[in-house]
UniProtKB/TrEMBL annotation:
The lineage of its organism: Eukaryota, Metazoa, Chordata, Craniata, Vertebrata. Its EC number is 2.8.2.-. It comes from Podarcis muralis (Wall lizard). It holds the Pfam family Sulfotransfer_1. This is Sulfotransferase. GO terms for molecular function: sulfotransferase activity. The keyword Transferase applies. The keyword Transferase applies. One of its GO terms (cellular component) is cytoplasm. Its main location: cytoplasm. Belongs to the sulfotransferase 1 family. Keywords: Cytoplasm, Transferase. SUPFAM superfamilies: P-loop containing nucleoside triphosphate hydrolases (SSF52540).
Length: 301
């Protein structure tokens, strides 16, 4: 076996390995992020950076594509040059194939970046530079289902186990990026003292034009009616599902035959998976853990 063949075999082995979870300040992160936490936590944000942040599988890619189109005047051709994960680096993502952190550091300003970090782990420079942040929250039931299927198809994520096992991990916050409850509440509170546009996935699905206009206004961008219509058409779920620059079909560690990255994009899919007891358990937890926060979520439209 040549050295090249040996190196390729070693890379294939690394790519086929599922990551372990390692806690950073009490938050479970993928091992690659935990190993490089010193670099991530000291990332130098710039004053004109825009950060898109969500709990995983809460509409991140959809929001990224909307933002990119707004930034390019609603012209899909200008957003079709490279995949979305290269246009907007994912700060804490590291694998044998790439480091998105280094890509972000090399980008010219203004940059648009992505993260799933809870508010307490965000690199301090984002607060110091008063960067604009768009946060999207999705109801716990649909979020859990979507995250479950994503962990099934992503060969670098920890094995999710059965749905019943996974829901217990979701409730306990024993998943990559921690507790959904803490995540949505932490960012909700942070919006009171920082320039954060806090959006709800369900509102975006029900009134996409209004959501697009809110984002454009937050970014100080004027949108013509034709541009708005183009953005709506281009970011409609079925359009994005077949768009190779947005659907992650070029990501080698994703098994789309097992479950597509863009699976359904609906509100209420949880009804096909949750038992009555599981639904009531999560309802009770939401009532208890969101009480007094001012946060309310819709689980159907």
């Amino acid at each position: 076996m040549t050295n090249l063949e040996s190196d390729m075999e070693g890379l294939d082995h690394k790519l086929s390995q599922r990551s372990e979870l390692v806690e950073v300040d009490g938050i479970p992160l993928l091992s690659g992020a935990a190993e490089r936490w010193g670099r991530i936590s000291t990332f130098n944000a710039r004053g004109d950076d825009l950060l898109i942040c969500t709990y995983p599988k809460a509409g991140t890619t959809w929001t990224q594509e909307i933002v990119d189109l707004i930034q390019h005047g609603g012209d899909p051709q200008k957003c079709a040059q490279v995949p979305i994960y290269k246009r907007m680096p994912f700060l804490e993502m590291h694998s044998p194939l790439f480091s998105r952190l280094e890509e972000a550091e090399l980008m010219t300003s203004p940059r648009t970046l992505k993260s799933h970090l809870p508010v307490q782990l965000l690199p301090p420079s984002f607060w110091e530079q008063n960067c604009k942040i768009i946060y999207v929250a999705r109801n716990a039931k649909d979020n859990a289902i979507s995250y479950f299927h994503f962990q099934r198809m992503n060969g670098r994520m920890p094995d999710p186990g059965t749905w019943d096992e996974y829901l217990e991990k979701f409730i306990a916050g024993k998943l990559p990026w921690g507790s959904w409850f803490d995540h949505v509440c932490g960012w909700w509170k942070a919006k009171d003292s920082h320039p954060i546009l806090y959006l709800f996935y369900e509102d975006m699905k029900e009134h996409p034009a209004l959501a697009i206009r809110k984002i454009a206004q937050f970014l100080d961008q004027e949108l013509s009616e034709p541009a708005l219509n183009r953005i709506m058409q281009h970011t409609e779920f079925n359009s994005m599902k077949v768009n190779p620059m947005a659907n992650y079909s070029t990501m080698p560690t994703y098994n789309h035959a097992l479950s597509p990255f863009m699976r359904k994009g609906t509100v209420g899919d949880w009804k096909y998976y949750f038992t009555v007891a599981q639904s009531e358990q999560l309802d009770d937890l939401c009532a208890q853990l969101l009480r007094g926060s001012g946060l309310t979520f819709r689980t159907q439209l």
